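Amino Acid Chain and Its Fold in Token Form
===========================================
Structure side: the spatial fold of the chain, written down as a series of whole-number tokens.
Position: the record begins directly beneath this header, with no further notes in between.
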Amino acid sequence: MKKVMVIGLDCAAPQLVFDAWRDELPNLSALMEKGVWGKLRSTDPPITVPAWMSMLTSKSPGRLGFYGLRNRADYSYAKMSIPNSAQVKEPTVWEILSKAGKKCIVLGVPQTYPPKPLNGYLVSCFLTPSTKSDFTYPKEFKAEVEQVTEGYILDCDNFRTDDKDRILDQIFAMTDKRFRLARHCLQTKEWDFFMMVEMGTDRIHHGFWKYMDTTHLKHEPGNAYQDAIKRYYKFCDERVGELVKLAGDDTTILIVSDHGARKMDGGICINEWLIKEGYLTLKQMPKEPAPVEKCDVDWEKTRAWGSGGYYARLMINVKGREPQGTVEPGEEYEAFRRELITKLEALPNHEGKPMLTKVVRPEDVYAECRNIPPDLFVYFDDLNWRSVGSIGTGELYTFENDTGPDDANHDWHGIFIMHRPTDETSTERTDLNIKDVAPTILHHIENAIPEDMEGKVIS
């Protein structure tokens, strides 16, 4: 029987794996030398949620119905929700395989909390409230997980911090425990499909990118953390090699990331811009910077508001949709969106130079938009800048993040490496999409592929 092993490294960057450090990552390089590899186009937006679920269902974020880590729960002005496994209505690869009688092991895949039943074992993800929660399937597997890892770590505590020694130690410890658990499962459980996702790659990028990247605005030559990310990548490469040795000769191996990473030059205070342009009106300014949900907004005089994050989500105050809507649906709504797109794409940077800002209407990238998408996505300077949602900063451009120190933004492409038992040559591909991964897994495990999957098999 054919087997498939998937090792996910959240946010792993192709420019580091494929270019800068390829010669120093012998296990990943060996898979590339006898396999298919290339940059993997992520979702719109390129964010952990929804990217992993898009990968593993072969459905777009629009079809899944979530557009980031925080989504509008209804058309009120403040109620938001964080997606969980119960909101995933499309079948994942392990659910499809479980129904076919295949045995599955799933460790740390984002948006698997609370755990759903499967034919095998599951440990949920960084969105789990704490290890006091029931974070495994079956429930009794939790005791084994805790014993094997000597205290499992779901995620890093406050990875946006100036306490770099603490967070660096925790990233390495978390990763060591996850791979230790993976080795244990591979050696003690029956499996046809194995998948794990490590979040440390994402956390170390956000915490340490400026120390590595000499082009970063805040880079300091000769700093103490200059090699931190490289050391971590080499650490992960060694542990990937250990799993590959346990995979067996009949196993197809995939190494994937949900998106990439790049330096972050600064932040655009989206709500400050909306106030300046007359689109967002407050009854009074907050005494200190605060999110729009906590500000005294005059909704009867407001046409749009936005949120922060690695991209901006713009919401329009539509009559008959929002409680105190001001923009007529139909032609007025569309004309207003065109106006916002034109102005935002023309916005220069802090030096007055053009930015490569891209503003997207959700219906232009998704065939279907379930639940409540933003009215516009804004990718400032093609993701070189992030969106800062706080009001009260008093400035449009900022070089401090309102949620804590953060050096990196997400990038459009993650990594894809596939080694099959019969591969003897290296093939680089330039046409890979994140939705291709699920049908590829099913193909190589010799399982039927649902007709409604949106991706194609990578051969």
In short: The CA atoms of residues 70 and 196 lie 24 Å apart. The radius of gyration is 22 Å. The chain is about 30% helix and 20% strand. The chain has two domains: 3-263+410-444, 266-405.
